[in-house]
Amino acid sequence: MHFSYEMSILLFLAFAGFFIANRLRQPTAVVNILLGILIGPTLLQIIQYNTTVQTVAYLGAIFQIFIAGLEYKSHNIYTIKNILIALGGSIFPWIVGYFVSTFFFNSIHSIFIATTMTATSIAVSVAILKELGLLQRKMSNIIIGAALVDDILGLLMLSITKSYLVSQDLLPVFLTKAGFSTLFLVIAMLLGPYISRIASRIHSWAKVQKIHYLAYLFAITIAFLYGALAELVGLSAIVGAFLAGFVLEKLNYQDFKVGAQYVGVIFSSIFFISLGILVSVKFTESIVRLVLILTLVAVVSKIIGSTLLALITKVKAKEAIIIGVAMVPRGEVAMVTALIGLNMGIITQEIYSTLIIMAVLTCLVTPTLLKLTLRLVRRKQTT
Q1: Which DSSP category does 56 fall into?
Q2: Both ends of the chain: CA-CA distance in Å?
Q3: Taking residues 105-112, what's their average pLDDT?
Q4: Which end of the chain has fewer CB atoms surrounding its CB within 10 Å, N or C?
């Protein structure tokens, strides 16, 4: 199939996805994945996951994580409460996910499956909170902050897991990974102010010369450079892309943000569609059972882990359970993790498809669960 033909289909679906998501009041990412499943090998078989889709999907992953990094504010992340809640929402699902997975798969597959259960989708959580009119509440700041830390932990777990599964020796891998990762993170953060200063000067010069979005072009260059350096030290490229966005978040230029949104909406949308195209599975009884079990584990473990740590940090019980439910949706990081596992040959096509469907289901059930939780909380308040 010709490149232009494939791209026209992908872009049309991305365009249609926004209308469908708005109509159904569902996250656009979830709708795009479902559209990808529709046109992929599972159903209509219009597009296969080939080099074109893979390349665009990789670009989409970088842009998706970079743009997410631009939205991360350090003062919203580094609070003891948020870090503890995120730890509970990451470690507990990992432990439960691993032990449940060992009943169906070997230890290597189980480790990777558990890793995909750690991170919370900040994009989906924010969309749900906004839809329910909860975005301006203090409780939402805790949810968003914990979800941000959750994503960072998920990315680090991905990098450590990837290296461990290649070498199969945990202690040397952990020590080496911890050393190189820490060194890279420290250097990347220390260089942040200097890079921001350079970007600021580029922006000022470009504004005089009327060369719009030049600062954004520079930022994208830094995103891919950080991604390449992250790969060199054994981390994932998306960790580098995230760090690039994080260190550049102070560049609050309007055209910079608009440029990020315009470019990101194209590649990120195609990225989510490609995740659906990659799903190639026959829905047998065993597959359906496995999807339901992993989804149940993902939902329950995240609620319990996040809620318990929220209670420990002295959050009120009614708010703690709401925080736990709002942390349920898996999204970008989980899906990128599954994609990396498939491309590296660590997991099979069947496991990949199961994980993507699991992630989609957690996004779909969260609004209903959150509405039911809010209803129960308000009912107890009136009685």
Answers
A1: H
A2: 63
A3: 86
A4: C
Amino acid letter for position 348: T
Work out the angle at residue 238's Cα, subtended by the Cα atoms of residues 233 and 242, and round it to the nearest 5 degrees.
Answer: 105
Asked whether the beta carbons of 196 and 274 are under 8 A apart, the reply is no
Mean per-residue pLDDT over the chain, rounded? 79
pTM: 0.70
Contacts of 248 (CB under 8 A, 6+ apart): 69, 70, 192, 195, 196, 199, 219, 222
Q: Are 351 and 105 in contact (CB under 8 A)?
A: yes
Nearest residue to 318 (alpha-carbon basis) of 367, 376, 377: 377
Q: How many residues does the chain have?
A: 383
Question: Which residues are CB-neighbours of 364 under 8 A, at least 6 positions away?
Answer: 26, 30
Location of structure tokens 């040397």: 172
CA 329 vs. chain centroid, Å, equals 10
H helices of the chain, in order, are 3-24, 28-39, 51-70, 74-77, 80-101, 107-116, 122-131, 138-167, 170-209, 214-232, 237-247, 254-277, 285-312, 317-326, 332-343, 349-382
Confidence of residue 300 (pLDDT cuts 50, 70, 90): very high
CA dist 325 and 365 (Å) reads 10
Confidence of residue 293 (pLDDT cuts 50, 70, 90): very high
Quick one: 80 exposed, middle or buried, by C-beta within 10 A (0-12, 13-18, 19+)? Answer: exposed
d(CA 269, CA 314): 39
> Tokens for 235?
């981390």
Token pair belonging to 13: 């679906």
Alpha helix ranges (H) inside 210-284: 214-232, 237-247, 254-277
Write the CB contacts of 270 (distance below 8 Å, at least 6 apart in sequence).
Answer: 10, 11, 14, 56, 57, 60
